[in-house]
Amino acid sequence: MQYETVIGLEIHAQLKTATKIFCSCSTTFGNEPNENVCPVCSGMPGVLPVLNVKVAEYAAKMGMAVNCVVNPVSVFARKNYFYPDLPKAYQISQFEQPICGPGHVVIETEAGRKKVGITRIHMEEDAGKNIHSASENKSFVDLNRTGVPLIEIVSDPDMRSAAEAVAYLKEIRSILVYLGICDGNMEEGSFRCDANVSVRPVGQAELGTRAELKNMNSFKHVQKAIDYEVARQIDLVEDGEAVIQETRLYDAAKGTTHPMRGKEEAHDYRYFPDPDLVPLVLEAQWLTTWRGELPELPEAKRNRFVSQYGLPEFDAGVLTAERDLADYFEATVAAGGAAGGEAKKVSNWMMGEFLRELNQAGIGAGQAKLAPADLARLVGLIDKGLISGKIAKEVFPELFAQGGDPEAFVKAKGLVQISDTSALEQAVDAVLAESQTEVERYRAGNTKLLGFFVGQVMKKTKGQANPGIVNDLLKNKLA
Ligand code: ADP
Ligand code: MG
Ligand code: ZN
User: Fold this and answer.
1) How far apart are the CA of 37 and the centre of ligand 3, in A?
2) φ, ψ dihedrals at 319, nearest 5°
3) I want to staple 140 with a disulfide (CB 3.0 to 4.6 A). Which of 12, 131, 162, 171 is the partner?
4) pLDDT tens, position by position, 268-322
5) What residues are in contact with ligand 1 under a 6 Å CB criterion?
6) Does pLDDT of 264 surpass 70?
7) Which of 120, 210, 260, 270 to mutate to test the pocket of ligand 1 (most atoms within 8 A of CB)?
């Protein structure tokens, strides 16, 4: 029997507003516990929530960016459950009338481009944090995060592999960061996802029973959790057992999933419209203004990088994944005054050495000390033959770390390539004099030895000889 995997994702994105969703407390991360708290977000009786309109703006902009219908009227609902980090005993969310309805994004898969449907996007408040101290044998509650705004983006069950799920997740993250509405940090939890996974025999129209996976805080975890879960469900079905609908937690240390709670503990949220909040009405004029403020989004930028710079799709995908990386690329190409061909050289440097250094330093392109104009100069120095590509790569980590003009840098280090023919001639003559046997064999027809002579000259000049000139000199002298 062949099985097909079906995946739908629920993504929670923390919005980068200055204040919380229903009160004016700060959203700053890392303050002392319960510093960012007031009667509203700590759930005191008798207080009233007031919507922060920035939250609606950001949610609507995300909807527009993923081709959603933005509903002119939406309604907040209470999702009831009891937990110490939720002092009201309900979370304000949206249920029957969310801010955004159906939409879609396009992702790149092995088989080409694919549309993934978005079911809905709604606004809600985050809960606080319980901290359990084993040493003190006590539990603490920190309400700083209570009331921090979130949007939940729910996808259709359109993904067919863990790789597609990760591609979709990366696309959504990229769009959120482009919009400037979420910092996209998975490790810190400002961008998190639950994966709904099921399997069905190939050809069956009806969906299989799904499990909902939680607790994955990196793309790698998402990939591994889904792969594990798919294998587990296929094993069950093959053994004639049923998959049960449940929430399962991913265990990063073991690479497995296990049930989070039994059925008898399953939540019944008893949603109902929040009587403390009037329906949200978005005026047409606001929507027009917000749409006008959308930046160029990843997919459009990807397409433009292919058509404007003649880059391969792959390069365009890598360079546009982060907005500041894309900006850096364009600034470098502009500084080089370059046409299509040079853009590819810049792209190679950025996808290779530059990205490696950025990742190692753990910073974005916007924080790099090496300015785009200086990277353009470096590419130019190699083109002009002033330094070899090999040496440029060797010194790049240092140049990247300190920034500045690469020409001054390589000159100060004495790394400038020797293109002066008379100086090179001396080295070539010396090598030929030292290698009489090889010279005779070359002249007897073993022309493959040319590489040997080039290597010797390079050794003598500590890698600084211009290989093109050395080649010409050797061929002339050996003829
Ligand atoms: P809930 O809120 O209870 O989790 P939803 O109906 O909102 O349920 O579905 C949540 C997610 O589960 C959506 O992303 C949806 O695409 C996905 N989903 C629903 N059914 C399946 C299934 N059989 N297999 C995989 N994913 C599914
Ligand atoms: Mg769910
Ligand atoms: Zn507050």
Assistant:
1) 5
2) -70, -20
3) 131
4) 899 999 999 999 999 999 999 999 999 999 999 999 999 999 999 999 999 999 9
5) 6-10, 154-157, 196-198, 207-208, 210, 212
6) no
7) 210
For ligand 1, pick from 66, 94, 120, 196 the residue to mutate: most ligand atoms within 8 Å of CB: 196
Q: Which contiguous run of DSSP H or E holds residue 256?
A: strand 256-259
Please state the three-class secondary structure of 374-439 as a single string: HHHHHHHHHHCCCCCHHHHHHHHHHHHHHCCCHHHHHHHCCCCCECCHHHHHHHHHHHHHHCHHHH
List the chain domain ranges: 3-289, 298-412, 421-478
Report which of 165, 98, 91 is spatially closest to residue 128, judged by C-alpha positions.
Answer: 91
Q: Which CATH number fits domain 421-478: 1.10.10.410, 1.20.120.530, 1.20.1270.220, 1.10.3720.10?
A: 1.10.10.410
CA–CA separation, 120 and 287 (whole Å): 18
The tens digit of pLDDT for each residue in 383-440 reads 887 888 888 898 899 999 999 999 888 888 777 777 777 888 888 999 999 999 999 9
Q: Cα-flanking dihedrals φ and ψ of residue 471, to 5°?
A: -55, -50
* Residue appearing with tokens 């129209």: 205
Give the residue whose CA is nearest to atom 13 of ligand 1: 8
- Cα 10 to ligand 2 centre (Å): 7
Confidence class for position 249, pLDDT limits 50, 70, 90: very high
